[in-house]
Amino acid sequence: MSDWNFDEEINRRNTASLKWDFADERFGGSELLPMWVADTDFASPQEITDALVKRAQHPVYGYTGATKEVYDSVIHWLKDVYGWNVSKQAISFSPGVVSGFTMSILALSEPGDKILIHTPVYTPFFDTVKNNNRELVTSPLTYTNGKLKINFEDLEAKLKDGVKILLLCSPHNPGGIVWSASDLQQIGELCVKYDVIILSDEIHADLCLPGAKHYPIASLGKEIAKRTVTFMAPSKTFNVAGIQASIIICENEELLAAIDATQHRLAFHGLNLFAFEVIKAAYTSGKPWLDALVVYLQQHAETVQAFFAEKMPDIKVLAPQASYLVWIDCRALGLSDEELQTRLIKKGKIAVSPGKSYGPGGEGFIRLNIGCTTKTLNDGLQRIYAALKAD
Ligand SMILES: Cc1ncc(COP(=O)(O)O)c(C=O)c1O
After folding, report:
1. CB of 48 within 8 A of CB of 286?
2. What does the alpha-carbon distance between residue 20 and residue 46 come to, in Å, rounded to a whole number?
3. Is the beta carbon of 38 within 6 A of some atom in ligand 1?
4. pLDDT in tens, 303-332
5. What is the 8-class DSSP label of residue 28?
6. Which helix (H) or strand (E) holds 159?
7. Cα angle: 332, vertex 337, 342; to 5 degrees
8. Which of 93, 104, 122 to mutate to test the pocket of ligand 1 (most atoms within 8 A of CB)?
C-alpha cells in the first residue's frame, strides 16, 4: 500500500483546467469525460504544495532568479535518476519544453533549414517547424507487430540530405516508447556523421514505467553531447504544467550561449518565482511519490490492454513503456477519423486525442490519457466501448 492515494477523486471543474473546463468547447460536445490533453488528475506531491504555500505567504513577489539551490536540485535529479553528471553551466530554463525547443530552433537554424521529425509525433513538433519557416522533413516510424520502430535506413538517407536539426521525442509521444540505448546511440552517431544538431524533448523521461530505462541521448557520449540540447521538466512528472517551469540542458557552451542570446532577444528573462520553488521541491523531494505513481500508471496500462483484449479484440493497444498516454489502434473498425471522433464525442461522451492530429501514421488511432483515478479510467473505457462497439 503506497503512502499516496492516487484513487482520490479531486474535482477539477471550475479550476480553469484545460482538460476539464475546456473539453466540451474544444471537442464540440457536452458533459464529455476528458481523457485528452496530457496532464493528470492527481494531486502533486505535498512537498510542492507546501513550497508554493510557504512562498505565497511571503507577501512580496518581486523579481527573482535561479539560486544555487535551484541548480543543485536539477543537478542532483539528473545524477540520481539518470546517472548523468551535468554542470551548472550547462543548465538554462524556459517556461515550457515547447517554448524551449522553439527558441532553440530560432537560435540554431535559419529560415529554410531542414528539420527532421519522426511521425506520428506530438503535434507542436510540426507546428514549430512550419510556424518558423523551416523545412519539415519527416521520417515515418514503422509499425509492425504492435511496435513502433525507427526506420534507420530512411533516417540516414534524410539526414544525409542536408538536415540541420533532428527534433527527437524521447520517450515518444504518442507511442509511449522508451528508446533503447542502442537506438539512441545509433541516432546520435548518425547525427555526428552528418553534422546534425539534436534537440531532444525528454519531457516524459521521468515517467518510465517499471522495467523501462530512459537514457538521455546526451549522456551517451561526448560527441553526441556536443551537438545535443535536452529539454526536461517537472511538469508532466509532478503534474505542475500550469506552473510553467522547464529545464534546458546543453553541454556545448556555444550552443547554449546562442539559445540564451535568443531568449534575451525575445525578452524572456527567466522563470517566475513560483516556478523556481516547484523545481526545487520536485527535484529534491519528489522521488518517492514518483516511484509510487509509475506503479499505479502501470496498473492502468494493463487494465486498458486487458479491457480491449477481452471486449474489443480488433482494437490493438500499444503497451506504453513510459507516461500516461496510451496509443490505440482502431483501424480494424474501418471507421474514418471523423466517424471515430463523432462516435466518441456524441455516443460515448468522451474526449480523447484523435490520432490524426499526430500526423501521418496517426490515422485511425486514438490517444487515451490514463493519468486519472481507476474509477475514471473504468468509466472512460465503458464510454469508448459504448461508442465503438458494433451496432
Ligand atoms: C512530447 C511533449 N513535449 C512537450 C509537451 C508540452 O510541454 P510544455 O507544456 O512544457 O511546452 C508535451 C505535452 O504533452 C509533450 O507530450
Report:
1. yes
2. 22
3. yes
4. 999 999 999 999 999 999 999 999 999 999
5. T
6. helix 152-160
7. 110
8. 122
Q: Could you report the per-residue pLDDT of 36-88, keeping only the tens digit for each?
A: 999 999 999 999 999 999 999 999 999 999 999 999 999 999 999 999 999 99
Q: Give residue for cell 541516432.
A: 187
Q: Are 20 and 12 in contact (CB under 8 A)?
A: yes
Instruction: Provide CB contacts within 8 A for 306, sequence distance 6+.
Output: none
Atom of ligand 1 nearest to the CA of 99: 11
As a whole number of Å, the CA-based R_g of the chain is 21
Q: How high is the pLDDT of residue 250?
A: 98
Bridge partners, 369 (sequence order): 325
Q: In terms of C-beta density within 10 A (0-12 exposed, 13-18 middle, 19 or more buried), how is residue 186 classed?
A: middle
Residue position matching grid coordinates 511519490: 289
| Whether residue 233 has its Cβ less than 6 Å from ligand 1 | yes
Strands (E), the chain: 33-35, 91-94, 114-119, 135-140, 142-144, 147-149, 163-169, 197-201, 228-232, 246-249, 316-317, 325-329, 350-354, 365-369
